[in-house]
Structure formats: structure tokens, C-alpha cells
Amino acid sequence: MILDVPSTTITSSDGPRPIPLIGMGTATVERHDEVKSAVVEAIKVGYRHFDTAAFYGTEKAVGEAIAEALRTGLLKSRAEVFVTTKLWCNSTERDLVLPALKKSLRNLGLEYVDLYLIHWPLKINHQHMKIPVPKELVTAIDIKAVWEAMEECQNLGLTKSIGVSNFSSRKIQEILAFAKIPPAVNQVEMNPLWQQIQLNEFCKQNHILLVAYSPLASVGNSWGNNSVIECGVLQDIAKSKGKTTAQISLRWLYEQGVGFIVKSFNKERMKQNLDIFDWALTQEELNKISQIPQRKLVYLAGFVVTEPNDVTVEIDSKL
User: Gene3D superfamilies recorded for this chain (predicted)?
Assistant: First the structure.
């Protein structure tokens, strides 16, 4: 059985464009060889939004999976899938943005992507995509120049929409001050343990869709943990409703009016992660979730660069 995934609309070169609210993530370190088959299985289950990035090294596998789905009839046309990829920090310069997108399109085997995001609001002055990155290689970006290059990518038809990732409201305001095409999406870490209430409200006010990554705290990944899955409040609600803790977290996100990227290569969990639309959380349950102590998982400096204690203040001030 194919489960239906609700969608919303974002601004694009074609006017309002539908984006499925649940996307399948492909960020992985240990399991690159499984990505193609996992994406094919996800298409069979009902996923139609696939999230990758130059940094992940999974663009080629995602593209091959889509090509196989078209060849075998799982998909009737390219337009049935929504593909997001991202500009890595070693290409956040005006003259490097367009070549980076063209390279991603070659990897994907596609003529266009549906959404192209600036992955992080910083520049890494090194070509190798490795983390952590020495702090002396990290600098601020010229956001006006980079955003103008992103707009060029959309105007050329190489991406239908453009947006950002890991941007604060202050950094987005900088873009809005000069942008001819405003960001359609801001993809950030968000889950019941990191609720992003103020940022979500800001994005709604500015007609920007917030899309959550790490909705389950990246459980199963080397950089993730079990904090969401083992959260007592979420476990109690799950038990009372006959649901999984993961489903409670994802339903909570859905009720916040955001999209989210969830990753599982297990077919049954893929199905469970989509099965969140024919029930709802009560106000009492929402109140309990709102009181969960907050805990951020992916710190910009700690995740991307070395010596986080030395660079956190420096880099965060530029967000």
C-alpha cells in the first residue's frame, strides 16, 4: 500500500509549487552503498521528496534510484518527485555557486532540482569535503554575492526554488533586505527536544517554509543519539496512543506546520514514519511536549569545525 503524503506550496520559478511535507534524508557516513536501494524502496512506499547534498556524497545514488524508478514504472515522470540538494561551504562564493549546482546535477543525472539550499552560512577555504574542519579555514560569506548567484541558478531553470539551511532569523533578514527572490525554505535542526518556536514563527511571518532535519535526533547516525527516542514524555504519550515514539515526534512536527526530513533504510520504519496523518495529539499532550527541556544536537562549530570552544562565539555571531 502506498501512503499519501500531504504537501504545502513554496515559491518557485513556476509559481506556487507543491513540496511534500515529509522527505527522505540521505545523509549517511557508513551506508552509502545502501542509499540507492533505500530510495527505490521509499518510492514504493510513497515518499516523493528526497533530500541530498554535495557534502553527503549521495547525489549519484539518489539520481540512480530515480532513474530506476522511472525505467521500471514506479514513477511515471520526473515531475512526480521533489529533489533537494545543497551548496557546500567550499563553494559559497559568487563564481562558484553555479558550477557547484551544475556538478550536483551531473551527479544526480537531472536537468534541474526542485530546491537548492545554501547548506551553512559560512565559507570553508578548502576543497576537501571532510569534517571536522580546522578553524583557520572557516570564514564568513558574502551573503549578498552568494544569494545573487543562487537567484541566477533559479533564473536559469537549474533549480525551481532556492533557500537556506542552518540560518538564523537575523541572517535571513539580511537576505530579505536585498533579495529579488526570497528564500522559499529554511532547513534546520528541529524536534521536540529542540523546538525552534521563535524561528518557526519568524519563517511563517515571512512566508518561508521551515523544514526540520534530525526530527529523531539523527538516531542511528554516528553524529546522532537516542535523546528523542528515549524521551520519557514522548514514550508515555506513545504508549497511551499505541504509537511509536518516533511517530509522536513526527506528528508533533506536522502539527507545528513544518516539513521534515526523516531517514530510515528499514522498510517497515519507512511506512511507520509516513503513518502519522489519521490521528492527532491532544492539547494536554502538546502542553507536555512544550515543557520538555531543550537540547540542541548539531552545534555549528562542534559539528563542522575543530576546537568548538574557540570558534563558537566567532561563528555564531555571523549567523
Answer: NADP-dependent oxidoreductase domain
- Determine the average pLDDT of the residues in 220-247: 85
Interatomic CA distance for residues 267 and 271, integer angstroms: 6
Q: Considering only CA atoms, which of 277, 105, 296 is closest in space to residue 195? A: 296
- Domains in the chain, start-ordered, CATH in brackets? 19-316 (3.20.20.100)
Q: Please, is 78 exposed, middle or buried when counting C-beta atoms within 10 Å of its C-beta (0-12, 13-18, 19+)?
A: middle
Of the residues 47, 56, 116, 254, only one is catalytic, namely: 56
Question: 132: cis peptide before it, omega within 30°?
Answer: yes
Contact, 87 vs 100, CB < 8 A?
Answer: yes
| DSSP state at residue 270 | H
Task: Indicate the annotated binding residues for substrate.
Answer: 119
Task: Examine the residue annotation and report whether 299 is marked as an active-site residue of this protein.
Answer: no
306 has a pLDDT exceeding 50: no
Q: What is the pLDDT of residue 33?
A: 78
Q: What pLDDT, in 10s, does the model give residues 103-133?
A: 999 999 999 999 999 999 989 887 665 666 6
Number of Cβ within a 10 Å radius of residue 206: 14
Q: 80: which 3 cell numbers?
A: 512526480
- Tell me the pTM: 0.91
- Which of helix, strand or coil describes residue 173? helix
> 37 burial class (0-12, 13-18, 19+ CB within 10 angstroms)?
middle
Phi/psi at 204 (5° precision): -60, -45
Task: Tell me how far apart the alpha carbons of residues 156 and 102 are, in angstroms, rounded to a whole number.
Answer: 11
Whether residue 315 is predicted with pLDDT greater than 90 in this model: the reply is: no
Which residue matches cell numbers 534546520? 188
Cβ-based burial of 319 (10 A; exposed 0-12, middle 13-18, buried ≥19): middle
Residue 80 has pLDDT above 70, yes or no: yes
Cell 576537501 -> residue:
128
Q: What share of the chain is helix, strand, coil (3-state, %, to 5)?
A: 40, 20, 40
